Automatic annotation (TrEMBL):
Keywords: Oxidoreductase. This is NADP-dependent oxidoreductase. SUPFAM superfamilies: GroES-like, NAD(P)-binding Rossmann-fold domains. The lineage of its organism: Bacteria, Bacillati, Actinomycetota, Actinomycetes, Kitasatosporales. It comes from Kitasatospora nipponensis. Coiled coil: none annotated. Pfam families: ADH_N_2 (PF16884), ADH_zinc_N (PF00107). Residues 15-324 form the Enoyl reductase (ER) domain. InterPro entries: ADH-like_C, ADH_N_2, ER, GroES-like_sf, MDR_fam, NAD(P)-bd_dom_sf.
Length: 329
């Protein structure tokens, strides 16, 4: 069994030197526990913040959402071969308590990795942001940032299924922009390196947008405030443009437009909306089966690549949700 430990606190962008691969000495199985072999690991932007002082302890295995298979169990609730969700990521094996894992019963025909992307926290974040925070109405236009990433590509596709009007995305390369408009059904997209976000958004939506799903913060948030119509809404999901900075960002300089345009800006955390999971699956599984929505994923194979996958995700190496495959599905 192997695990990745964080060995130093990154300043700015983390590097491979902040991590070490170590042999993991697993605790012996006691009643109520089970040995799990990991199959898929999720690497996520929030992990960058957890690497700063006051969060994750140095020299211990890192955490994160994962899917594993039970090898051996000393609890009647779990049997060898069962698939489970748990939080012992960044390692090949884990000893888990039966009461801290969630059994995973895959819908027939749906690939297992989907439970870390569209049918997992990523898809749930998109769905909650659209239906509970933006409360998107049919025909309304939507702008989403980091649109080619896990959450962003789910937002665009789910918004289409909810009957959205014009859907506009921003992403970090020309190839990603093409992916959005040619594969994922976005009406327009732009590379945010090509100019100020406000200008690029105005070109894509001269009449303004009704709603904005923010994954990026900073200049993107300011640009969206500029581009929103009166009574527009913002679902603030994340601020990936700021996770590597040691100083908090200056607020968007145009924040006061929230007042005179009567905008509504609301942040949210997916972990406060776990009750929506059943609704998400009822809604998405038929669309996944019919191909009206695709689980957009970059799956990196091999536990030895988990650190590179995480660092690559921060740099935009991923198209869709970044997932690491460490075992046989
Ligand atoms: P993504 O799959 O979107 O991966 C991160 C992407 O961010 C990269 O692919 C990169 O794409 C983009 N990016 C990196 N740096 C910048 C930058 N400076 N400016 C603009 N884009 C940048 O990750 P997730 O889908 O997992 O997460 C997306 C966002 O949602 C994050 O902010 C995350 O924290 C947030 N989130 C919030 C949750 C909540 O409960 N509120 C739950 C889950 C996620 P590119 O090539 O386009 O730059």
């Amino acid at each position: 069994p192997m695990a990745v430990h964080q060995v130093s606190r990154p300043t700015g962008r983390p590097t491979a030197d902040d991590f070490a691969f170590v042999t993991d000495r697993l605790a012996p199985l006691t009643p109520g526990t089970a040995l799990v072999e990991n199959v898929y690991l999720s690497v996520d932007p929030y992990m960058r913040e957890a690497m700063d002082e006051g969060h994750w302890e140095l020299g211990t295995p890192l955490e994160g959402r994962s899917i594993g298979r039970v090898l051996e169990s000393r609890d009647p609730a779990l049997a060898a071969g069962d698939l489970v969700f748990h939080r012992y990521a960044w390692r090949t094996h884990a000893v888990v308590r039966a009461d801290e894992v969630r059994p995973l019963r895959p819908h027939p025909g749906i690939p297992l990795s989907t439970y870390l992307s569209l049918l997992g926290g990523t898809g749930l974040t998109a769905y909650v942001g659209l239906t509970r925070v933006l409360r998107l109405q049919p025909g309304e236009s939507l702008f989403v940032s980091a649109a080619a990433g896990g959450v962003g590509s789910a937002v665009g596709q789910i918004a289409r299924l909810l009957g959205a009007g014009r859907i506009i995305g921003s992403a970090g390369s020309a190839a990603k922009v093409r992916h959005l408009t040619e594969q994922l059904g976005f009406d327009a997209a732009f590379d945010y390196h090509d100019g100020p976000v406000g200008d690029l958004l105005r070109r894509a939506a001269p009449e303004g947008v009704d709603s904005y799903f923010d994954n990026v913060g900073g200049d993107h948030l300011a640009g969206a405030i500029e581009g929103l119509k009166e009574y527009g809404r913002i679902a603030w999901c994340g601020a990936i443009s700021q996770y590597n900075s040691s100083e908090p960002a200056a607020a968007p300089r145009n924040l006061y437009e929230v007042v005179y345009k009567s905008l509504r800006l609301e942040g949210f955390l997916v972990r406060n909306h776990r009750d929506v999971q059943g609704e998400l699956e009822d809604f998405l599984v038929p669309h996944l089966r019919s191909g009206r929505i695709v689980a957009n994923e970059t799956v990196v194979a091999g536990f030895e690549n988990v650190v590179q996958a995480f660092l690559g995700m921060l740099d935009g190496a991923n198209l869709g949700k970044m997932i690491v495959q460490v075992g046989d599905p």
